[in-house]
């Protein structure tokens, strides 16, 4: 018992130190970077506003959501706080400016997060199609994977093509150098990551797992995650040379041996440091490597920070 208490006291001390480190860095270095003062006039159409004829795919800093379809997961006030990473629907995330979705499914096509499940993936697809029907030039990266510990939904690749076929941008390395206009009217890059089923074939309508990579750091300590994200990003090539998407997640994760195991209070430890991260990327010379930037409980300021750096790239300010 005494050892457990001592361990928790050490963890609290570490958390306090890490919070002070990030707060101090923000105070001393600030949150400014090229494009940091830009605010999109309409987040629902921010790619349109940046001029699709000028906006290249490899210039975009894509605002994404982590565990995107968890707004109604589990039982409210009982199991939901342990798995909910977003509080609004897929459609409302897209309207707010999100352009990368992280969807986990199980064998019956229901969205899940670990052992907890929520609505059928049809809800996600219908929200995407609704958004696409209301916009003209917004490109979405849709990552769908079979959740760890679950089986692949039968014939799920055929389902995705049947549902989204008219919008799907086919797998093609040359896409990264193209403009948004070059890709229209196709508007969805769908990355399908099965656990055991055959992966998508080259040149097909779905993209394979190797086209969306990240370095997941499983920690609830904000400075540890912040610095690890920065380190892994510096190890990547510049987006202009890359032929895959690389994601950084501005999140921290509840740990089983910590008394605080609900997502929201834990991820808040890093949530407000997104602009600081981009500013540090700029000051450390690796802002040209930032591509997908994802978060829990996405908000307008997070979207604006990603769109601002995108704007600066388009205008040649970085």
UniProtKB/TrEMBL annotation:
Residues 48-192 form the Phosphatidylinositol-specific phospholipase C X domain. InterPro entries: PI-PLC_domain, PLC-like_Pdiesterase_TIM-brl, PLipase_C_PInositol-sp_X_dom. One of its GO terms (biological process) is lipid metabolic process. Gene3D superfamilies: Phosphatidylinositol (PI) phosphodiesterase. It comes from the Eukaryota. Pfam families: PI-PLC-X. GO terms for molecular function: phosphoric diester hydrolase activity. PANTHER family: PTHR13593, SI:DKEY-266F7.9 (PTHR13593:SF113). This is Phosphatidylinositol-specific phospholipase C X domain-containing protein.
